[in-house]
Predict the 3D structure of the following.
Amino acid sequence: MTNQELKDNLQRIEPTATIEEGKQYLNVTVSPEKWHNLATQLKENKELAFDYLFNLTGVDYGDNLGVVYHLESTTHHHVVVVKVATNRENPEIPTICDIWRTAEFHEREAFDFFGIKFTNHPDLRRIFLDEDWKGFPLRKDYDPSVNPTY
Amino acid sequence: MGVKIKSMKYEDFEDNETLELFKQSGGNILFTTLDGIINWGRSNSIWPLTFATSCCGIEMMATGAARHDFARFGIEVYRASPRQADVIVVAGTIVPKMAPVLKRLYDQMPDPKYVIAMGACAVSGGPFVNSYHIVKGVDKIIPVDVYVPGCPPRPEALLYGVMQLQRKIKLESAFNKKKDK
């Protein structure tokens, strides 16, 4: 499916989403409330069939935090990028690891470094850093002196 | 036509491995000879631990492989268990989460044991020194005998480091226990 067809399809599924053409991929921005429903559609819809989540990144935009999802369909070979932004004080995004199982570890990583809480995640705890680590090191306002250095 | 001999300072005569060995053993010729034999054996049969945490490990493997082949210097069989290893080459970045593991491996090695800090990360933290999650030099955790700088060091550099370690072992005495660590 071409980017234009994808755009029309996605806009029909989720009218509140803003869709724009990026340099390479189609960028879809959606609110955290609508995201889980849209994700289910992306996976289940036979024409879209995004069955492969190949990247999940946490981002610190400054004013708010966000997560960027890269999705690909192994049958239709089209790609879409979904951006979900949330607030800084209580960053919560619904988990999508019930849809793409690979997200389970990726979401733990985003939680580890950015402190984004993925609601309904089965096992949300730190993955790379120690359990007693303070703060989230990839946030722009992270203060390295709160953790012991060697 | 006279032969020009390269001049040598008087202090350089003092800086002599055999002389140091002689002094260390208190001038006992028998022990000096025994030490010489023992240390010759020990220094030419250093077994390293299979331990590498990043790209320095690749360079260490290259050093062990056919082209550079540090088996020529007796640092030969990589042991998978610290119980059988004489030297641990810390090849790569050590993060605080890895630090207790490294300490445990070192503690599990039988004496006499040696440590080579290979590469900028193991020496001082390297390019990650200002990162949030780095051990700034493995000498913060375990005593280091030889530092091999580089990012990563070429096999020649590691070979040189190994030879320095061998020199160090050759100066030890099995009878006069003076640990200078």
